[in-house]
Backbone:
């Protein structure tokens, strides 16, 4: 494993068919990046936070990290401000930088609305993490509830990927494209099918349905006259999945 890592680090990068040597860091998007991020940040961030940061705080705190993305939560605002000051220094000591455009300090949790009103800050802020936008909400019982929905940036990215995929399949037979589209939707639903995200799931499904008709119309001169009614009949024979269907299938399989 160490030999492979060394070869990756010295492999260089390709930019416009030209190879450039790398002297430090990992190439952006490299398959090695998540592995090294987990190893490196385990010592630089995780252990440091647990062993040195938390004992010096006045309130409760925790860290949630996925590769090089992380969230730190603090009970007290003073602790959060102190941590923000030392975090940049800590990362800089190990040749790392904090992505300022992705970093922010905000009130969040059960008392966020109350504290924001007291300080005149308006509604509590939101943050994106792992493809979801997290925001403060209330349950049917009127209690605080952490809510999530597909982030706007990730949703636009997924739609763009779907468009490009359809565009690359203009000469591919229906019998090959449609089952793949179904699997793409099921994969999307498996990841994003969480509470309070139904609207965004159905929005993605509707976008896929419209792109499917557009794809059929662009395949040939005859297909340009395909009506919504005829397309509806095709969907009756080859339906697109709804959110939750793949979960039901998995549950049935587990029951057996």
Residues:
């Amino acid at each position: 494993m160490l030999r492979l890592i060394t070869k990756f680090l010295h492999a260089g990068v390709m930019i416009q068919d030209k190879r450039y040597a790398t002297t430090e860091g990992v190439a952006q998007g490299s398959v090695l990046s998540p592995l090294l991020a987990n190893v490196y940040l385990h010592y630089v961030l995780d252990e440091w936070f647990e062993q040195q940061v938390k004992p010096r705080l006045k309130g409760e705190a925790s860290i949630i990290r996925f590769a090089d993305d992380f969230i730190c939560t603090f009970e007290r605002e003073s602790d959060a401000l102190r941590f923000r000051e030392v975090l940049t220094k800590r990362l800089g000591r190990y040749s790392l930088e904090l992505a300022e455009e992705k970093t922010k300090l905000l009130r969040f949790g059960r008392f966020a609305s109350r504290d924001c009103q007291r300080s005149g800050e308006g509604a509590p802020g939101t943050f994106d993490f792992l493809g979801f936008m997290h925001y403060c909400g209330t349950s049917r019982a009127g209690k605080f509830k952490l809510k999530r929905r597909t982030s706007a940036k990730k949703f636009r990215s997924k739609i763009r990927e779907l468009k490009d995929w359809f565009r690359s399949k203009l000469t591919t037979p229906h019998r090959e494209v449609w089952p793949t589209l179904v699997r793409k939707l099921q994969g999307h639903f498996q990841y994003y099918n969480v509470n309070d995200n139904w609207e965004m799931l159905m929005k993605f499904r509707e976008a896929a349905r419209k792109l499917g008709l557009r794809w059929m119309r662009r395949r040939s001169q005859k297909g340009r006259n395909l009506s919504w009614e005829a397309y509806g009949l095709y969907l009756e024979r080859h339906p697109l999945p709804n959110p939750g269907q793949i979960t039901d299938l998995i549950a049935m399989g587990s029951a057996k």
